[in-house]
Structures are given as structure tokens and as C-alpha cells.
Amino acid sequence: MAATKILVCSVIFAFSMSSFAQETTDRIELGSSITAGSNSSWQSPSGDFAFGFYLLANGQFLAGIWFDNIPEKTLVWSANRDDPAQIGSTVNLTLNGQLVLTHSNGTEIFIGNRTSRASSAMMKNKGNLVLLDSSSKIIWRSFDSPTDTILLGQVLPMGTKLYSNANGAIDYSTGQYRLEIQMDGNLVLSAFRFGGRGYWNSVTLGNQNVSLIFNQSTAFMYVVNETRIIYSMNRTEVSTTIEDYYHRATITDRGNLQQWIYNKRGGNQWTLVWRAITEPCTVDSVCGAFGFCTSPDNNEVTCKCLTGYSPLDPNNPSRGCYPDVIVDFCDANSSTSDPTIEEYNNTDFLNDVFADLSRFPTTDVNECKKAVLDDCFCLAGVWSDSRCMKKRMPLMNARRSNPSTNNMVAFIKVPKMENQEQHKKDSPSWVVLLAVFLSCSILALIFGIAVVYNHPLTQPYIHGQPSAKPKSVEINLKAFSFQELREATNDFKSRIGRGGFSTVYNGVLTLDGEEVEVAVKQLEKVMEQGDKDFLTEVQVIGLTHHKNLVRLIGFCNEHKHRLLVYELMKNGTLSSFLFADENRSWDHRVEIVFGIARGLLYLHEECEPQIIHCDIKPQNVLLDNNCKAKIADFGLAKLLKKDQTRTSTVVRGTMGYMAPEWLKNVPVTAKVDVYSFGVLLLEIIFCRRHVELHRVTEELHQVDEGTQVEDMILVDWVLCCVNAGNLRSIVSHDLEVLGDFKRFETMTMIGLWCICSNPTLRPSMKKVIQMLEGTVEVGVAPEVDAQIS
């Protein structure tokens, strides 16, 4: 006990003295600046750390702090991780005492406390950038707003959060993992973007005034409650010679908190000395949805896709996977409704954040396998300890890791593949094939001559008559050959966009004697149906006609090529417009909201058959030459028959815009589009992305101090602002909005109505338009009531 008290006292003494420690340095004076690309920086007196522009692999820059005295310049903090700067951007300690990052296009980001004015700045030997007032008192420091790393001598008080990078040293933007010192006293690692409650914690729940301390003397990390160490992160001595090693602890893009050391005297790389998670595959969502994690030596993680799925991003397997074939196993008429089972030995779906469909006891592994196969709503199952657990979609946290998952068997349901041997046995002989080929060739030749002879462009040459007057592109739905579209897009080189299942190219086609710019969407791994089903969907899309929908001009259905040809929207996506640096007119934004709402109303209630879009987001709203909003990419939406109001399908859409019912394996309605529209509406009127950490964090001071808010999600932030009555102060800089504040307030409440977790409480798009027009009264949304109560 005495030894513990001595250690605690040494910890407290060390940190108390550090606040009074003085360093010999030339202060950074007002008017000082750094330019991206100039190789200049503000160094600490020891030369161990530097602040400036950190060059990324893609040629962009982060205004940050790094270890500067080693070959591997390791970034430990940045001010603009989600908004990289271009060459020519500057950081200025302005004459009025503000530390400002100015992008090359003129956009400014304030670093530090905007309400206080500094007289100077210092780069400390511990890697801490500080701003000082005229009496040399610290008014802001980078240690108080960490990104993904904690350094020796740093203290993280209760409520502090670290966020992982998105992809190691490639993408430093905010990732999906968080280390948080919760207000209940627990230190927790969680996959916050997936709603995870935590997969590791310090078991210090119930303590007050908790801090995480990276001790300067011992290089141990402690969880401290006032004057008592309540948890020691490290269990063995890391290094007895602190002076000889650099230390850092970082939450990685794989969700692990790890401590690293670097030998100052001759080292050539960082060495791992401690980690919170010893079995890395136990980290929530480490391989994403439908991913499969393996780590034979419990060291490095390898992510693959489960059978029947392909990676979303082959260059980053941890992003997860998507199904090779969209399957409804409950549809008896589907050619893929008769599945097979793939077995994975020593495999489990660990810490699944979604509830099991069901559990039942059985000592027979084959009985569990049959139960999974026979349940059309079930995609997978696990047999373990004489229990069978049937899993709902999406499949998360599939992993094989030694030794804890031994004697478990996982079953994955996949569409039955065609029996190649049977196909070979039943296939016709080469003689028959040759005869068929020759017959088809002759018929094709005759058909081609007839088409050419009767084509309008050949009539002047055949009959000596002028060509017919060009017809409107909107009237025709033309079938193009793959070669035509290849030539129109310059061999598919002019790419203008890419999604999960398609790539879009810019092209020029000659239509009825006129050259027309078009957008050619090449579908990938989506349309596995036969020609008849594809043509049926194309026909349905071609029948839609509304001023707020992107018009389909034609298609290609040749061999395995599935392409759609649309009118070109020269002003690009709503995302590019909304989150660009130019001023966005309030009236224009309001008109865009109305346009999207009218387009969705048409899809839901006015076209035949009715259509659910399933993926409403800024990237799927395009702007024409007059900047009018048009909804795009509804060609792959689930179609509804006239007497059908619901559809059961696999998860579609984009995280952040997806309605909660997608993840509950229940029938979905057009209300999923209403939810997505609600998120998009809030993005449009606030000019904020649905996830935008640094912008939200800058304005938390406008919310009541006693209010707790999830600061990375736009809808949660808006709810917090509404409850705190801060809407007017949030838009105080926008005179246009202030002049129409009543409408802004009403549209905010409409957005909150649309994102109700209960789909039956969400308004229809018809009612949304009535509320926008003011013909229907807008009450207080239930989500607001829940927050207030």
C-alpha cells in the first residue's frame, strides 16, 4: 500500500511540476506564418517535434505536429484531418492573436480558442503546441484537442475522445474507432460509426474525475481518479531509460490502442511494446460488413470476404464487402432461392451488435445447419456449446482467431451455383453449335441490312430525300451497341463518377443528327438477372418523366454489358455544390429542397409502377444547366407493383442516410426515402455534412454547457441545438437565413420529423411538401420531445 501511495504521489508531482516548467525557446511572434510546400515549420527547442504542413502521399497537406528528429516523420496531431490543404495554403498567427489555417482557395479554419486572443505561441518539447496571452498564461494547447495519439506527459480528462485514422498512413481522416473517457468513469474502445457499445474497457465504471495519464517518468499509462491510480494500462515495464526513447500511444485504424517506442540513438523504426487488444479479430467491425477476419498469430489482421461477397474497395479490404448477387431467399420464384451452405470451422460472429434472429439448444451440428438452410430470413448461423444461433443481416464480425473460437462452426448461406459438370454433360456437340452459329450469323446479316436500309440517316442516300427533322431526345429510348458507347466515351477514359455498383463516364453521341453530351453509367456486379428482367427495369425507368428526375436516354444490353445512358448534368452533384467553398444562396437551397421533394413524391405516388429510390444522398442529386435539382440513380431501386406497399430486401443505401429499419430485417416502405430526405434536408439548410467532426466541434460552445451531445453526427447536433434554443445563433453569420429565419426553423423541424426512428411517424412526401409550402402545420417532432423529456 505504501508503495502505491508513493507511486501516486510521484505521478501527481510530475504533472504538477510540468505546468510550471519553463523551456528556453524563442517564442512564435504575432505575424509569423508557414506556407504549405515551403518545408518551413515551428520546432520545439529540443528539435524533437515540429508544427507545420505535413505532406500526405496524395500531395495534400495537414497542418499538424510530428516527430521531426527521426527519418520517419510520424504525425501525432492535426488541425484539419478531414479537410486537407493544398500547396500554397498558409498557417498564420495573425496580428489580432488568432491562429488561422487559410486554404489556397481562401477558406479559413481557426485553430485554437477563437474567443481568446494570443500574444505569442510556443512549440513545447513534449509535442504540445500552445497559445499564450500577454501574461504568458496558456489559453489553448493542442494536448486538449487530441486526434488519434497521446504523448508522454499528456493528460486526457474525462470526456476526451481519440478517433482513429481511416486507413493507416494513407488516409488520416476520421476513422470508425474511438477511445473515450466516458462521463461514467470508464475508458472505452468502440466502433462508434456502427453504434457499438464498446469491445474493450478499463472496468473503472462508477468513478468520478477520471483522467488518463501518460506518465513522463515511467512511460506507463494510468487511469487516475483524483489522487488514486485505479487502473494501469501497462502490466510490464516498457523502458527504464525514458531519455533514450520516443513514446507514443495511438488508436489504430484497426481499432486497437497501441504503445510504440523509437530508439533515439540509432533506431530505424517504431517498436510495439503494448496493446490493449491481444486478439485483434475481437475488435468490432474490423473487417466491415460481410467481412471475415483471420489472425493466426494474433498479430496482424487479414480481412477477406465471406463466400458470395466481394470487397467494396480492393485496396482497403477492411471497408467490408457487398453481395455478388442480390438475393431474396424467400422468393420461391427466384432462380437463387435454393441456396447452399458454406461451412467455416472454428469461426464465430463475435460481439454482434445486432440481435440474433433466434437461439435454440441442440447437440447436433447438422440440425443447426438445416435450421439455417430452411429459414429463408436467415443468412448465417453459428453452432457452439450445444447451441444454435441464427444470425440476421448484415453479417458482422465474422472471425477465426486462435484459440478462443475452437469447436465452433459457422454456416453461411450462398446462392446455389450452376453445376458445371451437369452443364457440360447436357451441352450440345460442336456440330450443333456450328450449325446454330451459321444460322444466327445469316439471320443477323439479313436483319442488319434491313435496319440499315430503313434507318432515317440512310434514306437521303437511298431515295435522294432530305433527312427527317430531328426528334426530341426525351421522346426516344434508344438501344445502343457497346461499341457505340465505347467510342462515345473515348474507350471509357473520361470517368466523371464512381459508385459501389457502377462507374459513370462523360461522352458524346450523335442522336438524330445532333451531337449530344451524355453520361454513360456502366453497371458492375448488379444486374445478374436475364435480359428480360433487365429490359423490364429499363422500360420502367424510361417511363418516368419528371422535371426533377434525371432523364434516361437509352441503354446497352449486349452480352454481359449493362449500361444506361442519361442526359448529362453539367453542374455536377449536389454534394459538390453544397460543400464547396462558394457562397450558397439561401433561396437556391430552398428551391433545391423543393425540387428533391417533388421528385420523390413523383416516384412514390405518381409514376407507374411506384418506385422506392433506396439511396437518397447528395451524390445522387444532380444539378442541370440552370442548377435545378434532379434525382439520379433510381434505376436500381426496388420497384413496387400497383397493389404492393412493402418490399423485403437486403440492406441498401449509404451509412448515415439509411433508415433504422434497414438493419432490422423487416419489410421496408417508401418511408426509408423519407428518412434519407430528412438527413439531406438538414445538410442543405445547415450546409454541413451528416458527419463532420471539426465543424461541429468548433461550435459546441453555442450549446448549453450542461448538455451532452454526440458531436460527430449532424442530426444529433441539430437536435441538441433545437433543445438548447440556439438555432438563431448558429446561423447568425448568414444574413439571408436570418431574414427568412421562420422558414429555416420550420424546415429544421420538418427534417427532424422525417428522421423519426418509427417509420409510421414520418410524414409522406406529399405531406412533406404541404409542410414546406405552409399548407399543413408543422408541430414539434417526436425526437425533440424525447430529448426534452
Automatic annotation (TrEMBL):
<dbReference type="InterPro" id="IPR036426">
    <property type="entry name" value="Bulb-type_lectin_dom_sf"/>
</dbReference>
<keyword id="KW-0675">Receptor</keyword>
<keyword id="KW-0067">ATP-binding</keyword>
<dbReference type="InterPro" id="IPR000719">
    <property type="entry name" value="Prot_kinase_dom"/>
</dbReference>
<comment type="similarity">
    <text>Belongs to the protein kinase superfamily. Ser/Thr protein kinase family.</text>
</comment>
<keyword id="KW-0547">Nucleotide-binding</keyword>
<dbReference type="Pfam" id="PF00069">
    <property type="entry name" value="Pkinase"/>
</dbReference>
<keyword id="KW-0325">Glycoprotein</keyword>
<keyword id="KW-0808">Transferase</keyword>
<dbReference type="GO" id="GO:0016020">
    <property type="term" value="C:membrane"/>
</dbReference>
<keyword id="KW-1133">Transmembrane helix</keyword>
<dbReference type="GO" id="GO:0005524">
    <property type="term" value="F:ATP binding"/>
</dbReference>
<dbReference type="InterPro" id="IPR008271">
    <property type="entry name" value="Ser/Thr_kinase_AS"/>
</dbReference>
<protein>
    <recommendedName>
        <fullName>Receptor-like serine/threonine-protein kinase</fullName>
        <ecNumber>2.7.11.1</ecNumber>
    </recommendedName>
</protein>
<keyword id="KW-1015">Disulfide bond</keyword>
<keyword id="KW-0723">Serine/threonine-protein kinase</keyword>
<keyword id="KW-0812">Transmembrane</keyword>
<dbReference type="InterPro" id="IPR024171">
    <property type="entry name" value="SRK-like_kinase"/>
</dbReference>
<dbReference type="GO" id="GO:0048544">
    <property type="term" value="P:recognition of pollen"/>
</dbReference>
<keyword id="KW-0418">Kinase</keyword>
<dbReference type="Pfam" id="PF00954">
    <property type="entry name" value="S_locus_glycop"/>
</dbReference>
<feature type="domain" description="Protein kinase">
    <location>
        <begin position="490"/>
        <end position="776"/>
    </location>
</feature>
<dbReference type="InterPro" id="IPR011009">
    <property type="entry name" value="Kinase-like_dom_sf"/>
</dbReference>
<keyword id="KW-0245">EGF-like domain</keyword>
<feature type="binding site">
    <location>
        <position position="521"/>
    </location>
    <ligand>
        <name>ATP</name>
    </ligand>
</feature>
<keyword id="KW-0430">Lectin</keyword>
<dbReference type="InterPro" id="IPR000858">
    <property type="entry name" value="S_locus_glycoprot_dom"/>
</dbReference>
<dbReference type="InterPro" id="IPR001480">
    <property type="entry name" value="Bulb-type_lectin_dom"/>
</dbReference>
<dbReference type="InterPro" id="IPR051343">
    <property type="entry name" value="G-type_lectin_kinases/EP1-like"/>
</dbReference>
<keyword id="KW-0472">Membrane</keyword>
<keyword id="KW-0732">Signal</keyword>
<dbReference type="GO" id="GO:0030246">
    <property type="term" value="F:carbohydrate binding"/>
</dbReference>
<feature type="transmembrane region" description="Helical">
    <location>
        <begin position="430"/>
        <end position="453"/>
    </location>
</feature>
<dbReference type="InterPro" id="IPR017441">
    <property type="entry name" value="Protein_kinase_ATP_BS"/>
</dbReference>
<feature type="signal peptide">
    <location>
        <begin position="1"/>
        <end position="21"/>
    </location>
</feature>
<feature type="domain" description="Bulb-type lectin">
    <location>
        <begin position="27"/>
        <end position="144"/>
    </location>
</feature>
<dbReference type="GO" id="GO:0004674">
    <property type="term" value="F:protein serine/threonine kinase activity"/>
</dbReference>
<dbReference type="Pfam" id="PF01453">
    <property type="entry name" value="B_lectin"/>
</dbReference>
